[in-house]
C-alpha cells in the first residue's frame, strides 16, 4: 500500500463530542492527531446537508458551480421534485483531476458518486447507489470480484432509521453499525492492495447515523428522552471509539492522514416549524379555498402516505416489492404532493418545500404558475420576507427563532445559482433548532408547534440533526504539529490535498490552500501553482431508472432527509 495521503470522512462528526471524550482519554488516536497534527472547525454548506456538502468537498467549488443543492431538486418548469445523483453534478472531482495527471486514486463510499465516474484506480459509489444490483464500481468488472469476496457488502446499514419500531432492538442496531463499518474498512484494505494508490478516500457513515437516533440517549436533558433511554447512553461513544481504532490503523500505514466531516451535529428540540403555514399567515401563500377540493387533496395525500408506510412496515418482502412497483410513479411524486398539493398557485407569492429552512419565490418565467415579476418586485419581496423571518418568535420563550436569512447570492455564485432556493434560513440556537416534521401536510393551524411528551414518544424522526461546523484534522508528513485551523471551509480541502500532492490547483476552484497548517520548509520548496483554463465537466444527466429511484427514495425517507 503506497498512498501518499489517506482521507477519512466521518459523516457528521463533531468536536462538541470529540473534545470532551479526548479529555477523558476515551479517543486515544484522535488525541494523538490533535497533539501531533493540526485541527479546527470546518464550515459546511447552508443548509448543512450531506449531498451539497460532500460534493463541495470533492470539487473544491461552491454549490452555485457544482449544482448539487440537495438530495432532491425541482424538476425544471415544474413544482415537482426529483432525486439527484452524481449525474447532476456539473464540476469535476479532484480525484478525476488527479487521474488525468496520471495519479492513482481510490474512492470508497462517498455520497453523490453514483453512477461511478472513470478514474485511474477504483471508485465504489456511496449512499446514492440504489442497490448492489446496480453498477456501482469502476472499473465495472470489479463489482463481481468485490461481491464474490464480500457477499454481505451493503450500501447503507439496513433498517437502522426504523429503530423505534416495535420490532427493532437498539443494541443490535448499534452492533450492526459497527460491524458494517468494520466490513467497510476490510473492503478498503482489499481494494488498496488490489489497486495501489497515491490517494485513498473513504467515508464512514456510522457517526452520522448513530447521532441522528441516539442523541437523546446521550443527553439527559433532551426533550425527546423517554424512560429507559439512558440504557443506551454509550451508543454514540461506542461508534466514535470504533472510528478511533480505525484511524489508528490508518496512522500506522500512511505518511499523511486527513480526517473531516461534512457538517456537525446537535440535538433537535420539541419545536416544529411549518414555513408554508407561516407564509400563509403573512399573506404570501394561499391554500385552496374550495373546501371540497382541499379536502380531496389532503385526504388523498394522507391516505397515500398511510398506504406507503403500511406497505413498507407490514407487507412481506416479495408482495411489498410488487405493490410498490405498481405505485412507483405515484411514489415518485409523494414528496411534492405531501408538501405542495393544496397550495393555490394563482394566489401564492412564496412557498417552501418544507424539508429544509428554505423559501422559493413563485417567480414568473421560472415557476409554471409564477406571479411575482423578476427585478424590483422579486427583490422587494425577498427583503420583506427576510425581515419578517428575523422577527419570528418562539411561542413559549418569545426568543428569536431565526438567526440569519441569506439571499442565495450572498453565499453562492456560479452558473447554477438558479437551482438554489431564493432564501436560506439559519435557525437561532442551533442545538435546538426547529425542523419541519417530516410526514405532515403543509397547512397547519399554527406555524410553530411545541410537541408534548406523548407526541415526542410517537415520533420516528431523528432526535439530532446537522450543525454548520464539522471537523477537520491533518496529521503526518508536512503538517505543523499543534497548529489550529481558522476559518476553514469544505471547499478548502480539495486544493489543500492537491497542494500536498504537489500538483497545480485548477484556478476555478473556490477553496484556498490551508497553508497555515503546512510545514514552512515544505511551503518554501513548493510554491502554490495554479492551472488556468480548466475545462470542467457538464452534468451527465443519466439519472435513475424508475425502480432505482424507488430504492433511493426509500433510503432517504428512512433517514429523514426527505
List the helices and strands and how they pair.
Layout: E1 5-10, H1 15-23, H2 28-36, E2 38-43, H3 50-59, H4 63-66, E3 72-74, E4 81-83, H5 94-100, E5 105-110, E6 121-125, E7 137-138, H6 142-149, H7 170-194, E8 199-204, H8 206-218, H9 235-251, E9 256-260, E10 264-267, E11 271-273, H10 275-281, H11 291-314, H12 317-326, H13 328-340, E12 350-351, E13 358-361, H14 376-390, E14 402-407, H15 408-411, E15 423-427, E16 448-450, H16 453-458, E17 464-467, E18 469-476, E19 488-489, H17 493-500, E20 505-506, H18 520-525, E21 530-531, H19 546-558
Parallel strand pairs: 1-8, 1-9, 2-19, 5-6, 5-8, 20-21
Antiparallel strand pairs: 2-18, 3-4, 6-7, 9-18, 10-17, 11-16, 12-13, 13-15, 14-15
Helix pairs in contact: 7-9, 8-9, 11-13, 13-19
Account of the protein in words:
This protein is of the alpha/beta class and 562 residues long. It has 2 domains: 5-265 and 466-558, Alkaline Phosphatase, subunit A; 271-464, no CATH class. Helices cover 37% and strands 15% of the residues. The strands form 6 sheets. A 9-stranded mixed β-sheet has the order 7-6-5-8-1-9-18-2-19, sandwiched between helices. Helix 7 (170-194) packs parallel to helix 9 and helix 11 packs across helix 13.
Amino acid at each position: 500500500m503506497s498512498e501518499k495521503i489517506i482521507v477519512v470522512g466521518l459523516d457528521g462528526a463533531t468536536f462538541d463530542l470529540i473534545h470532551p471524550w479526548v479529555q477523558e482519554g476515551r479517543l486515544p488516536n484522535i488525541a494523538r492527531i490533535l497533539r501531533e497534527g493540526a485541527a479546527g472547525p470546518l464550515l459546511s454548506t447552508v443548509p448543512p446537508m450531506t449531498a451539497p456538502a460532500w460534493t463541495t468537498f470533492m470539487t473544491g467549488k461552491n454549490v452555485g458551480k457544482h449544482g448539487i443543492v440537495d438530495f432532491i431538486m425541482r424538476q425544471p418548469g415544474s413544482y415537482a421534485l426529483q432525486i439527484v445523483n452524481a449525474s447532476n453534478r456539473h464540476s469535476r472531482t479532484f480525484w478525476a483531476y488527479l487521474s488525468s495527471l496520471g495519479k492513482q486514486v481510490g474512492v470508497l463510499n462517498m455520497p453523490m458518486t453514483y453512477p461511478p465516474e472513470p478514474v485511474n484506480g477504483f471508485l465504489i459509489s456511496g449512499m446514492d447507489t440504489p442497490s448492489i444490483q446496480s453498477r456501482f464500481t469502476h472499473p465495472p468488472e470489479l463489482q463481481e470480484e468485490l461481491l464474490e469476496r464480500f457477499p454481505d457488502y451493503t450500501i447503507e446499514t439496513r433498517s437502522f432509521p426504523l429503530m423505534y419500531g416495535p420490532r427493532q432492538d437498539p443494541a443490535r442496531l448499534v452492533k450492526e453499525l459497527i460491524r458494517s463499518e468494520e466490513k467497510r474498512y476490510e473492503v478498503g484494505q482489499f481494494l488498496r492492495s488490489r489497486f495501489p494508490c497515491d490517494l485513498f478516500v473513504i467515508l464512514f457513515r456510522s457517526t452520522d447515523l448513530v447521532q441522528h437516533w441516539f442523541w437523546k440517549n446521550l443527553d439527559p436533558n433532551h426533550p425527546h428522552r423517554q424512560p429507559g433511554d439512558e440504557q443506551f447512553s454509550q451508543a454514540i461513544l461506542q461508534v466514535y471509539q470504533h472510528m478511533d481504532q480505525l484511524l489508528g490503523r490508518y496512522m500506522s500505514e500512511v505518511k499523511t492522514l486527513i480526517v473531516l466531516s461534512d457538517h456537525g451535529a446537535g440535538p433537535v428540540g420539541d419545536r416544529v416549524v411549518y414555513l408554508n403555514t407561516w407564509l400563509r399567515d403573512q399573506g404570501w401563500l394561499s391554500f385552496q379555498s374550495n373546501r371540497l377540493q382541499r379536502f380531496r387533496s389532503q385526504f388523498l395525500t394522507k391516505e397515500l402516505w398511510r398506504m406507503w408506510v403500511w406497505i413498507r412496515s407490514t407487507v412481506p418482502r416479495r408482495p411489498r416489492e410488487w405493490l410498490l412497483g405498481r405505485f412507483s410513479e405515484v411514489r415518485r411524486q409523494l414528496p411534492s404532493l405531501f408538501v405542495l398539493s393544496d397550495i393555490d398557485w394563482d394566489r401564492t407569492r412564496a412557498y417552501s418545500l418544507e424539508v429544509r429552512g428554505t423559501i422559493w419565490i413563485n417567480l414568473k418565467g421560472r415557476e409554471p404558475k409564477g406571479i411575482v415579476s423578476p427585478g424590483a418586485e422579486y427583490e422587494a419581496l425577498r427583503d420583506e420576507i427576510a425581515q419578517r423571518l428575523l422577527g419570528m418568535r418562539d411561542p413559549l420563550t418569545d426568543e428569536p427563532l431565526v438567526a440569519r436569512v441569506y439571499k442565495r447570492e450572498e453565499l453562492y455564485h456560479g452558473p447554477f445559482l438558479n437551482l438554489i432556493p431564493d432564501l436560506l434560513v439559519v435557525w437561532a440556537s442551533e442545538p435546538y433548532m426547529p425542523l419541519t416534521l417530516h410526514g405532515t401536510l403543509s397547512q397547519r393551524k399554527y406555524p410553530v408547534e411545541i410537541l408534548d411528551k406523548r407526541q415526542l414518544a410517537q415520533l420516528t424522526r431523528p432526535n439530532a440533526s446537522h450543525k454548520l461546523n464539522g471537523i477537520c484534522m491533518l496529521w503526518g508528513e508536512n503538517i505543523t504539529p499543534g497548529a489550529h485551523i481558522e476559518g476553514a471551509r469544505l471547499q478548502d480541502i480539495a486544493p489543500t490535498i492537491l497542494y500536498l500532492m504537489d500538483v497545480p490547483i485548477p484556478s476555478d476552484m473556490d477553496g484556498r490552500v490551508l497553508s497555515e497548517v503546512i510545514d514552512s520548509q515544505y511551503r518554501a520548496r513548493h510554491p502554490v501553482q495554479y492551472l488556468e483554463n480548466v475545462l470542467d465537466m457538464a452534468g451527465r444527466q443519466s439519472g435513475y431508472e424508475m425502480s432505482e429511484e424507488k430504492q433511493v427514495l426509500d433510503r432517504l425517507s428512512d433517514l429523514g432527509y426527505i
